[in-house]
Amino acid sequence: MKNSIVNLSCPMPKLDFDVITLGHGSGGILTHQLLESGVFNLLKNPLLDEHHDGAVFELSGQLAFSTDSYVVSPVFFPGGNIGELAVNGTVNDLAMCGAIPKYLSLSFILEEGLTMPEFWEILVSIKTAAEKADVQIVTGDTKVVERGKGDKIFINTSGIGQVHPKANISANNLKSGDKIIVSGNIATHGIAIMSVREGLDFETSIESDTTRLNHTVKALLDEFGTDIHLFRDPTRGGVATTLNEIARDARLGMAIHQKDIPVIDEVYGACELLGLDPLYVANEGVFIAFVSSAIADDFLSKLRQLPPGENAAIIGEVTVEHPKQVVWQSRIGGKRVVNMLVGEQLPRIC
Amino acid sequence: MEAVINDEEAQIQGFLAAGHVCTIMGISKYEPIVQNYKIPMVVTGFEPVDLLQGILMVVRQLEKGEYKLENQYSRVVKSEGNPEAQKVIRQVFETEDREWRGIGTIPMSGWGVKGELAEYNANKKFSVNIPKALECADCIAGQVLKGIKKPFECSQFGKACTPLNPLGAPMVSSEGACAAYYHFAETVEEVEI
User: Fold this and answer.
1) Does residue B191 belong to any structural domain of this protein?
2) pLDDT of B180-189, one tens digit each?
3) Is the ipTM of this complex over 0.90?
4) Quick check: A332 and B49 CB within 8 A?
């Protein structure tokens, strides 16, 4: 298992219980035990060690603030689990604002019956993800709901970060001619989740690419500053939905090219079989950047040297033609309008 | 398919047969239709190039005056289909009458849970009462399905009928004819959401 090395260095404490019960959310002895011997000890830092109702700290300059809830099912999936997703997701949302993430809050809604080894593995992933992203978890909450009222574990994280001094990130900055760059292969996370959720076996293991993006984003902002007009992570709804949102906000058109959009073969095959369009499949650990055309090539070569950007590609450009529309050009020369997704993508029904 | 061929208004010259059904059921069931009605048929995949090749294969048959069953989607579809899956289907389901939008009820054209497995039939077990979906008088889904009219010839297309509020089946699935026309229209001005 991927986390086994980490687990060796963070052995689960000896506790009087091996499953989460309603008592762990009561605020009494069990809550205390769970927090003291589990959460606080593992995620230790001076601000959290205060054990206060909230964290008190100083931060200067322009700040970014973001929140997100994580309800992924199953909670363990190829390439990760809900814990690292919850840290990376909020870290990445802050990074997309051009900010350097500093502090996170962490709230659990646990379902009665969640086993301690499962919870511990999630906690260790949270610790590891926070360390890798260089953020501290400084406040949090734990609630327990009755069996059947949750799905093992839901997590909310909120985060605060300092906006990079060179950053000016806004859809209003978009200009015709700007290049659209994706930082890596698309649709991998969504297909990894779907393959376990639906019990599909593609004879290859497609792993989620959930990861932090903040260090990469910071390095790009250090070098290219305001030539970067916008960052966005195409999570739910995929690249197509994200581009549509931006096209509408910016009142500009987008032209993207199928031949340039990086999708690994296994994911492409799974999408073909299921009748899904990779453009609409959820991503993690991937961002879209809009940059001025003058620096696009330099930006791309820099990004390709930074993890996880080795498969980054320029997939299209912003245009004054067809405002508020995303137009996709196929390998064989056809063009079509890529619309917002209506509801869930229905798998092929015939 | 026979109902569509026999429709007086429909002028079907050839069929692209849905590839994934054939993944399970195989392709032999189509042979009598091809022979009886002397109509070209090509089992086809779903990617743009699959469709183009499927259409090309039908057109070539028509130009030569031929009618035969061909398999464009051979990378997925085997002639015999998936015998194991067919066995399971026959264990669990039996054919029954089914109503088809715009066509009416066709005898033995659908699958229903077998009588002996009625205790597992959710419709009976839970006394589910699903109100009958009324066909909207303005919806031309039947004519679209039979190839008599194009989706945009419908007075409701992109107006009262959108993927968010579909009036007929072809607007529901992304692969329905009306939804495809809706999504891939040249400009959003035509079908502003």
Assistant:
1) no
2) 888 776 544 4
3) no
4) yes
